[in-house]
Amino acid sequence: MSNTVNLSEMVPSTYRGELEFIFRNPVTKQVFKTIRDHNIIKIFAKEMLAYRLPYSKIWDPNGGTGSGAWIDSGIDPTEEFAAKYILFGASFDEDGAPLDTIDSRYYTLDSVTGTYIPNRLGVGADYNGGLINAIPISEPSRPLKKIERIYFESSYQPAGTPLLQEDVRAMNNIVVMETTLRKEEYNGFGLTASDFFTITEVALSGGKEFDSVGACECTPSELFLEGKTDGTAITVSATGTSTISIIAADIAYINTIKEGDQVKIVDAGDTASDDSAVQQVNPHFLVISKAVGGSDIVLDRTPVDVNNVALTGQLGVFKNTLRLFSHRVLSTPFKKSSDFEVVCRWRIILN
């Protein structure tokens, strides 16, 4: 009996996807190169659909005058959970010099083939909840890339499938989300070709809607942290359990965080760009219980430091609206150039 494992038998077709990069002349739109990279979008399918499918109302048989009525379900199918952005990361060192495939954060040298292969991404909220090495945002030269086009492609349901008619059906079950890296965007920190970014990772994400973010020189993981209006974290009191409580002085923000949100625990008074004071293995948590108008926030686990000691006293908490539905290290990284534009298409097969 063969012990060979067929990957296609282990990964349901529901979770298949494809990344496509089209390199073309920015004026004539002539295509001179195309790169395709297969991807698994299991995280996208689970989290996005889990939050988007429920209706905001449920049927109460005894509602209204007793004959039944639609009432609030307690679920807010917010647009926050829809894919809006395609984020890019690049391999460069602390001096801004490109590292290309020799960057050990992204690639490992295969001793058999002598080529560099992508490192496997870990589970959980790795890399501070964002990309491995996100390109800092400085619009318009390094903008937060929004999805600029959404369209559907059809596939065909084979004849004879149970519960369907005996014919072949065309279905719009492939969604394509597209954005374009223009020739003046993502060209690096300097002005010469040697400074241009080597794009090594890409992520499909949802989050708070932004029009323009300005030249903040911040990473996406910072940009999507939501706290108080002055930019600091909401202050909470921790007692060494999984429940933290918003203090009375910050009562104005009592409903900023809701059940089902992702949050980040930081030191009291921290800003989104300065949040390293509390040393934790993983600062990201899921809110599993939070009453509207209530100050208590129940997290999925007790916040602890790197020594596994429960955190107590005053801490800060940010609501994290950034959600990476899928994250991929590119098999074929590419160097950006001021001579061409790159169309990025994220194709998801939802059959």
Radius of gyration over all CA atoms, rounded: 23 Å
The helicity comes to: under 10%
**Strand line-up of the largest beta sheet:** 12-13-16-15-14-17
User: For the terminal residues, how far apart are their CA atoms?
Assistant: 32 Å
| Structure summary, number of beta strands | 19
Largest sheet: 6 strands, antiparallel, barrel
Low-confidence stretches: 1-14
Mean pLDDT: 85
What fraction of the residues are assigned to beta strands by DSSP?
Answer: 35-45%
Please count the helical segments: 3
User: Which structural category do the helix and sheet elements fall into?
Assistant: mainly beta
How many domains?
2
Dominant shape: globular
The ordered string of helix (H) and strand (E) elements is HEEHEEEEEEEEHEEEEEEEEE
Summarize the structure.
By secondary structure, this protein is mainly beta. The chain is built from 3 helices and 19 strands.
